[in-house]
Amino acid sequence: xxxxxxxxxxxxxxxxxxxxxxxxxxxxxxxxxxxxxxxxxxxxxxxxxxxxxxxxxxxxxxxxxxxxxxxxxxxxxxxxxxxxxxxxxxxxxxxxxxxxxxxxxxxxxxxxxxxxxxxxxxxxxxxxxxxxxxxxxxxxxxxxxxxxxxxxxxxxxxxxxxxxxxxxxxxxxxxxxxxxxxxxxxxxxxxxxxxxxxxxxxxxxxxxxxxxxxxxxxxxxxxxxxxxxxxxxxxxxxxxxxxxxxxxxxxxxxxxxxxxxxxxxxxxxxxxxxxxxxxxxxxxxxxxxxxxxxxxxxxxxxxxxxxxxxxxxxxxxxxxxxxxxxxxxxxxxxxxxxxxxxxxxxxxxxxxxxxxxxxxxxxxxxxxxxxxxxxxxxxxxxxxxxxxxxxxxxxxxxxxxxxxxxxxxxxxxxxxxxxxxxxxxxxxxxxxxxxxxxxxxxxxxxxxxxxxxxxxxxxxxxxxxxxxxxxxxxxxxxxxxxxxxxxxxxxxxxxxxxxxxxxxxxxxxxxxxxxxxxxxxxxxxxxxxxxxxxxxxxxxxxxxxxxxxxxxxxxxxxxxxxxxxxxxxxxxxxxxxxxxxxxxxxxxxxxxxxxxxxxxxxxxxxxxxxxxxxxxxxxxxxxxxxxxxxxxxxxxxxxxxxxxxxxxxxxxxxxxxxxxxxxxxxxxxxxxxxxxxxxxxxxxxxxxxxxxxxxxxxxxxxxxxxxxxxxxxxxxxxxxxxxxxxxxxxxxxxxxxxxxxxxxxxxxxxxxxxxxxxxxxxxxxxxxxxxxxxxxxxxxxxxxxxxxxxxxxxxxxxxxxxxxxxxxxxxxxxxxxxxxxxxxxxxxxxxxxxxxxxxxxxxxxxxxxxxxxxxxxxxxxxxxxxxxxxxxxxxxxxxxxxxxxxxxxxxxxxxxxxxxxxxxxxxxxxxxxxxxxxxxxxxxxxxxxxxxxxxxxxxxxxxxxxxxxxxxxxxxxxxxxxxxxxxxxxxxxxxxxxxxxxxxxxxxxxxxxxxxxxxxxxxxxxxxxxxxxxxxxxxxxxxxxxxxxxxxxxxxxxxxxxxxxxxxxxxxxxxxxxxxxxxxxxxxxxxxxxxxxxxxxxxxxxxxxxxxxxxxxxxxxxxxxxxxxxxxxxxxxxxxxxxxxxxxxxxxxxxxxxxxxxxxxxxxxxxxxxxxxxxxxxxxxxxxxxxxxxxxxxxxxxxxxxxxxxxxxxxxxxxxxxxxxxxxxxxxxxxxxxxxxxxxxxxxxxxxxxxxxxxxxxxxxxxxxxxxxxxxxxxxxxxxxxxxxxxxxxxxxxxxxxxxxxxxxxxxxxxxxxxxxxxxxxxxxxxxxxxxxxxxxxxxxxxxxxxxxxxxxxxxxxxxxxxxxxxxxxxxxxxxxxxxxxxxxxxxxxxxxxxxxxxxxxxxxxxxxxxxxxxxxxxxxxxxxxxxxxxxxxx
Length: 1419
Description:
Elements: H1 2-27, E1 35-40, E2 49-57, E3 64-65, E4 73-75, E5 100-101, E6 117-121, H2 126-133, H3 139-147, E7 151-158, E8 169-176, E9 181-189, E10 198-200, E11 207-212, E12 221-228, E13 236-237, E14 240-243, H4 249-252, E15 266-267, E16 283-287, E17 297-302, E18 320-326, E19 331-338, H5 340-343, H6 346-349, E20 369-371, E21 379-384, E22 393-400, H7 410-416, E23 421-425, H8 432-435, E24 449-450, E25 466-471, E26 490-495, E27 506-512, E28 515-522, E29 530-533, E30 540-545, E31 554-561, E32 574-577, E33 599-600, E34 613-617, E35 634-639, E36 649-655, E37 660-662, E38 670-672, E39 679-682, E40 689-694, E41 701-711, E42 731-734, E43 737-738, H9 743-747, E44 768-772, E45 782-785, E46 795-800, E47 811-816, E48 821-822, E49 834-835, E50 844-846, E51 853-858, E52 867-874, E53 884-885, E54 888-891, H10 898-901, E55 915-916, E56 946-950, E57 961-966, E58 977-982, E59 987-993, E60 1002-1004, E61 1011-1019, E62 1037-1044, E63 1057-1060, E64 1086-1087, E65 1090-1091, E66 1097-1098, E67 1121-1125, E68 1135-1140, E69 1152-1160, E70 1165-1167, ...
Antiparallel strand pairs: 1-6, 1-8, 2-3, 2-5, 2-7, 4-6, 7-10, 8-9, 11-16, 11-18, 12-13, 12-15, 12-17, 14-16, 17-20, 18-19, 21-25, 21-27, 22-24, 22-26, 23-25, 26-29, 27-28, 30-34, 30-36, 31-33, 31-35, 32-34, 35-39, 36-37, 36-38, 40-45, 40-47, 41-44, 41-46, 42-45, 43-44, 46-50, 47-48, 47-49, ...
Helix pairs in contact: 2-3, 13-15, 13-17, 14-15, 16-17
C-alpha cells in the first residue's frame, strides 16, 4: 500500500511539472519560420544540380504547394561564370531542361555537407500570416496554425550524375535572428534518386530495393541488378537508381548497377575499413517516381572478387537478399531469397528468416546471373499455333492433370488450397487484369483476354500471342528436394465468338529449366464455345457450309441421329462451333429445342466454303463413340427461313482423335438440298421427297403459297396424306421464306411450329412467302418429305398469291434421287413434271387433261385492272338454258382481299360482286412486301389477266357460248376477250369475244343483226332554259331506247335486253339521283305497261368505278354506247326512238347531240348501213355515182331543249325519233333537172331542218359538181332510196309547188308517152260509134254487131270499165265526127283520110308517138 501511494504521488508530480513547463512555454512568444530550404546532408563531388523543386505545406495528399515567385526564391547562390543560366529561379520554372547549380566546384572539393541550399521565402503565404497573427494566442489556437506551415512533402528532380546528385537531403526552417538566418533541420530525406521526379516521402509501391541478408566480408558490390514486373523475369522495368550510399559515387555509384555493363559495379558505403556490411545495412534499388510498380522477379550479378591479385580481394557478395518495397511508411520485405546451398544448411549458418519461395536459379554467387524464376512446370502457357486475322481473344482456359479434363482444374485447386498464382501475358503485367479473365470461371462474352500482336489489323503470326498461368512454388524446406510443378494433360478452351479473334490451332507449353518447352499442339479448335483437347476419337461431330452463303449462316435447331431414318438421336453433350456473331446466338441455341432461338455464324457474309461450322462434343466416355465413323447416319436441320442465311450444301465430319474426317452418312460426306424455316432431313432415300420449283421467273420476288396438296394419280383425286403434325411423319419442306409472324404470334402456336406449315393447314387465309432469288442462284421451292415412304407424286393442287409479284406462271416438279434433286423421270410424263399457265387466283391443278379448264383473257390493254362481275360458260351455242357449266374458279390473280375481289365472285350469281384482276390498283395497306411505298404497276397488258373454271380432273367440256358482265368503268374493261382452252400442256386460243361493254350481260358468240346499239359521238354544248349551269361535264343518260323495223318508228322490235358500254356502278346517292340508279335495264323498262321514261341508264363516261374514285373532271362520253340484245333473233332496225335524261344530279346527265347507230355483224360492231342502187345511166359522166352504196346511220341535232318547261327541267321527257333517212350519211345524187328546181337550204325542208339545223345547204350540199342531196329533202320523200324500199314505203311528205313540179318533171314524160300510145291505138282500134256501143252495153241493150255482147259481167263492173276507158272513147268520137283544125291534124297522124292507115302510113303514127313523148317531157 505504501508503494502504491508513492507511485501515485510520483505520477501527480510529473503531471504538475509538465503543466508548469507548458505554462512557461505559453508565456514565451513563438516565431514562425520565414524560409523553407533543402540542404545537402552529404557532400557532393562537384556542384549540386537541381532541375526542379516543389515544396508542399503539410502532407503530399493535401496538395498545398508553396507558390514560387521570383522574389521569394532563396539559395546559397550559383556559379559566377553562369549567373543567369544556372540561377536559383531555374529550379522553379516548371522545366526539367533547366537547372540551378550550386556555387560549388569539384576543384574546391565540391559541396560540403550543408554547404548549399535552395528554397523559398514563405512570409507572403497565407499560412505564415495566419500563424504570425495568432502567435501570442494560447497553444490550442496557435499550434494548429504553426502545424499548417510545416513542410512534410517534397518533390525534387535532380541530376542523375553521381558528381551532381545528393543522396540525403535535409528540409530546414530558417528564422532571422537580427543579423542572419538560423536554419533548423526538420526532416532528412533518405536515398533521394536523380534523373526522375523523386517524391519524399514516397508513395506506396513506388520505390523498390534489395538489401543484404547475410554478412559480407567486404563492402557489398553489385555488378548488375534488374527488376522485372512479371514472375518469369521477362519484362524489365527501369527507374532512377538509389542506394544506401556509394563507397565512391564517381566510380562505384549506384547507377553502375543498372548500366548493363558487367565491368562496372556499385559498392555500398557500409562498414569501416575493410569490414563488410552487416545484414540489411546496404541496399540498392530503383525509384519509380510517382508510378506505382510491382516487382515480381529480379536478376542480379554480384561482383567476383579477384583472389589472384597481389593483394587478395575479399568476397563482397551476399548469399541472401530481401526484396523490399516502400509501403508509405517504412520498408517492408516483399520476398526473401537464399542460395539453396546455404538454405539447406540453415542451421549451420544460423539463418532465421526462411525464403518465401523456391527459386532454383538463385544462388551460386559471385560471378553468375542469379534470378528468381520459378521451378519447372510451375508456369504454363497457351500460344497461337497458326495465323489469326485479328487480335487473339480468349474468355476461359482450364488446365487439368487428368487426361479427360476430369476433376478440378488447376487454378481452382490452387485457390482452394490457398496457394497463390498469377496470370501470364505476352504484354506482361500491364495486361494481367485482362489475363485474369481467362481464369475467372465465367465464360461471359463481355470479358476476355486480348493479345497485343503488332501485325496489320492486329493479326498474329504463329506463336506471337500467348497467355498462361504462373503457379507460385511453395517456400522450400531446409534439406528438401527441388520442387516440380503439376503436369497438364488436358485443356478446355473457350475462345472469342469471332473467328478473326480465334486460333484454330493452339500450342500448350510448359516452363522447364527456365525456358518454354512445347508440350501439346491442339488443332481445329473452335470459338464461342468450350473445346476440350485432347478429345477422344469419335466423340465429336460437326457440320460445315459447303458453299458460299449470301449473309450470316443461321441454324435454329440441328439434331444428329444414329439411324438413317432420323428416329434415334445421338446423345447430346457440349455444343461446339467455329464462332458466332451476336452474344445471344451461341451454339447452345441450336440445341435447346426452341425454334425461336438460333445459332448465327460470326461472318455476316459467309462467302467462303467450309469456314463456318457447328457441332456437338459428346462426353469423353460416351458409349456411342464405339460406332466410329458411323456415329451419325442422319441429320435433321432447321436453318433460318431466309435464304441469305442458309447453307444449300453441307459437309458432315467426325473427330477421329486428331483430325476431322468424313462421315459415312453419304458416299462423299456432302449433303445437298438443304432448306430453311422448317426441319430438313438429310440424307433421304430415293423418291421420298418432292418439290415444286418456279420456272422462267428471272426476277427476285417473294412467292406467296397459301396451300398445296399432293396426289398419287394424274387427276388429283387420290390425295397423299397431307403434310402436318398428325400425318404420320410427312412434313413440309421449303427452300426459305420471309417470316411474317412475330414472337407473340409464335408463342400461341404449338412447340416447334413453322410458318411453312401454313401451306398445309387447310386454311386459305394463311400463307408463306417463299423467297425466290435467281439473282443469287437461289430459286424458291416448296415440297413434302415422306420420310421412309417411297412415293409417286403425279398431281399437285395449290394456291398461290393473288398478285403478279407473288405468284409464278410456270413451275417444274422435282423428286429426290437419293443424292440430289432431279427434274426428269422416265416414269412420269412431261405434263406431270412441267406446269405451265399457272395463275394466282383459286386452286391451280396440274397436270390437267385437255378441255378440263377454260378461261377468258383480256385481248386489250386494261389501264386500271380488269373487273368482271359475272361469267358463265355454256356447252351449247346461244347459251341455251340448262347447258351452263360449273367448276372451280381459277384466275390469274386478284386484288386482295379475296373475300372482296376473289374469282369466286364472278361465279356466285350476284351481279353486285366482282372479280378484280391482279393488275389493278392495290390499296396501300394491302401492298405486298417491298412495294409498301412505291406501289405496284397498274394496268393489264394483253392476255395478262384471265378468269376461268376448272371442271375437275375427270370432266371435259367444250365451251360453245359465254355470257359475262364486266365492270362499267371503261378503264377496267376489255373490249375484246379471248377464250382459251387447256390443251393438256398449255393454254390454246379457241375464239375471240369482241365488242364487249360493261354493267350488263353480254353473250358471245352472237349472230349477225341480233344486237343493235347507239354510240355517243358528241355531246350537246348549248345549255337549255331552266338547266343548271355547271363547270364540268356530266355523264350521258338514256331514259328510254326503242328500235323499230320500219322507217316510221311504228313497228317496234320486241324482246331485246339492254346492253351498254358501262354504267355508273357505285356512287354516293343524293336527292337528285334517281332512286333506281343508273343501270342499263332502266333504259328499256316499262311501268304499268308503258315505257318508264324517267328511270335512266347513266353511262360511266370515264368517271371511275368506286364512289370514292368518281371524278367529273375527267368525264368523257365519247364512244360510250347502249343497245339491245335480241338473243338468237336477227332484227332489222330502220328507225329508233330515244329519250335522253335531263337529270340534274352531280354525275348525270348531259345529252348527246350526235350518235351513231351500229349493228353486230357476227364478229364486230359496224355502223348500220343500208344498200342503195343508183339509177342506171346509159352514158354516165365521171362524177355520176353508178356503183352500189351503203348509206350509214349517223344522227345529229339530238338533245333538243324543251320548248316550255312544264315542271322542272329534270322531269322533262323529250322523245326523239330518227329514221335511216335522217342520217347524216344518207345522201343521193340529183338529176340535172332536179338540181335546177330544188331549194338548197335546209331550212326549206322541215325534216332536214329538224335533223341538221336551220342553217346550211341540204338539197343539194357539198360539191355542186357531184350534186349530193340528203335523204331528208322534201322532193325525195316518195322516192325509193334504199334497195329494200318497196310498196311498204308509204312515206308522205308535205305537198308544195316545188315538190309537185319536181314530181311532174319525173312523171310527165312517161305519162305523155302512155297517153300518146293510148290515143294512137284507140283511134285505130275503136269503131266510130264506140260511144253508143259502150252506152248501150252499160244499159244491157242489144248490140247490133254483137262485138260487146260477148263481154258478160255485172252492171257495177261494166260501169267501172266504161269509166276507165271513157277518155279514149271520147277521143275516138272526136276524131270521127269533129271537123275542126285539131281533129284534122290528129287524123293526119292517126287516121289518114279518116280511114285505117296503110302500111305506108305507119311512119305518121311513129312521128305522133315521138312528138307526144317530147312535148310531155318539155312540160
